[in-house]
Amino acid sequence: MHLIKVKAVSHSYGNRSFLMRTKGRTPVLKNVHLTIEEGTCLGLLGQSGAGKSTLGRIILGLEKPSSGQVLFEGQDIIRADQRTHQHFRRHVQAVFQDSYSAVNPRWTVEQILSEPLENYEPMNRKKRQHILIHWLERVGLSEQDLSKYPYQFSGGQLQRINIARALVLQPKLIVLDESVSSLDMVTQAVILDLLVELKKELKLAYLFITHDLTAAYHLSDQLAILDQGELVAQFQSKDDFFISEHEAVLKMKEATLASHPLSRTIGRPVR
């Protein structure tokens, strides 16, 4: 069974005039079909405005599509009952681009990481701290960081905290929405390597939303391209993607430059 199945999802937003009246609707997604399998990473590529983040929010259940279905383990999450929805919310987590706005600046790391557990799995503080320390250490931080505040961390460290928060409930899927794009290249590489390790170790599935082909190639098992709200191509392997002559693939490859001029190739980005 597919972990996630998106069936014929379309979505549009109403345009507002200066009098705040709705004036027509702008289509953002058009009849999108895609699947994410257990333990695999689907890299969702596309330029800004392609509809990637909107699709991510719909898959997370943060927005309802204008039409279509999103199935999690065969259950329609849009029309789910409370019990099914709670199960879905526990097992599908997210890490967003802006690591700072994703946390409460007035909370300590302990409070930030504790929130999901308090919502879904209440427990005594000793047991909770044991879990928090485990996941902090797993992402490269330490027990001493529990008492610190977000301003005391770099962007890369804070993104590790966001990853740890996504992991405390041991989800089946993490939606990564441009989660490394605001980091410098060295930090990007370290975080991507961490995500690869976690995926293998925990048998996680990812939806990796990005415009960065090199990052997508590093992390993803499968690749798909969203263009102006339409899923124009989906490939079962990275190799299938790079031998494709599809117009959207050629545009993505042409727009990708390797990190060093001597390493630039027409076909494949540098790993």
TrEMBL record:
Keywords: ATP-binding, Nucleotide-binding, Transport. It holds the Pfam family ABC_tran. Residues 4-253 form the ABC transporter domain. InterPro entries: AAA+_ATPase (IPR003593), ABC_transp_ATP-bind (IPR050319), ABC_transporter-like_ATP-bd (IPR003439), ABC_transporter-like_CS (IPR017871), P-loop_NTPase (IPR027417). One of its GO terms (molecular function) is ATP binding. This is Dipeptide/oligopeptide/nickel ABC transporter ATP-binding protein.
